[in-house]
Amino acid sequence: MPAVTAQQQTEIDAQRAQSAATKRATVPALEDILYQALPVLDHGCVRVIDYMGDDNAVVQAARVSYGKGTKKVNEDAGLIKYLMRHWHSTPFEMCEIKYHVKLPIFIARQWIRHRTANVNEYSARYSILDKEFYIPAPENLAAQSTINRQGRGAVIEGKEAQRVLDLLREDSERCYGSYQNMLNEDEEGNAVDTSRPGLARELARMDLTLNYYTQWYWKTDLHNLMNFLRLRADAHAQYEIRAYADVMLETLKRWAPLTYAAFVEYRSGAAHISATGLAIIKRMLGGEAVKQETSGLSKREWGELMEVLGRSD
Prior knowledge:
Elements: H1 6-17, H2 28-31, E1 38-40, E2 44-52, H3 55-63, H4 73-85, E3 96-104, H5 105-111, E4 118-121, E5 142-144, E6 152-155, H6 158-183, H7 201-204, E7 213-221, H8 222-232, H9 239-255, H10 257-268, H11 275-285, H12 299-309
Antiparallel strand pairs: 1-2, 2-3, 3-7, 4-7, 5-6
Helix pairs in contact: 3-4, 4-10, 9-10
């Protein structure tokens, strides 16, 4: 099943066909995908619903100017890089963006830990959830890591992989069948069996598995969007939430390209070095053969530092 139904696509097309004159700043590259359902995972999607501000708004806020900023793009880019480099967050908070996200419930529960956004989720107390659940692609079906309690290890293959996929699909199908049976309602809200009452929707929903899809509107400012993307678009993040972050990263690139470039340079593509780690690097540059045992770092800290430096020792 696609991320949106034919009826939903018709509604989206109608929205995208509308236009309005405005004195507010608009970004053509983001307007090109406004309302469009950008697919994620098997049934999920991300849509940009609305936004306020752009790169110019960041510059304007930083300088508290009356216009767009400067006439030279390189000056604006330099200022944005300076703000990013020195962790000046307030100018980025002047821009906002609102997404419509369709995602598995277990990812929504991980996502909601970012408490720096306004969220309104689809209500399963009021409405009936669709029969849409996430099943991982075989290449994303991995065993528990033996060295990381919240990570994945080697990919499961062959008969064991098929057994797991069958269990996930069968359990999801069975739970939805029980959900429908307890509700005793069709899609129009009419009783299927008039001889018995249907269980309240707020109770029936508890029988659904966490891989079922939910939806929400998620509105945040540019500063907190970058905080989210720095963590969730990282290679160490869980694959499923990273898939959403990667799509949102592309919307950031369209929306505020100067900010995106600074973000990649100083946040997502950079590394944080502790004071001890910095001292170790200086010792190495001085010609000292520093070892973990004499570094002052734990084995895990040492391994992380060596990963940053691209060294295996």
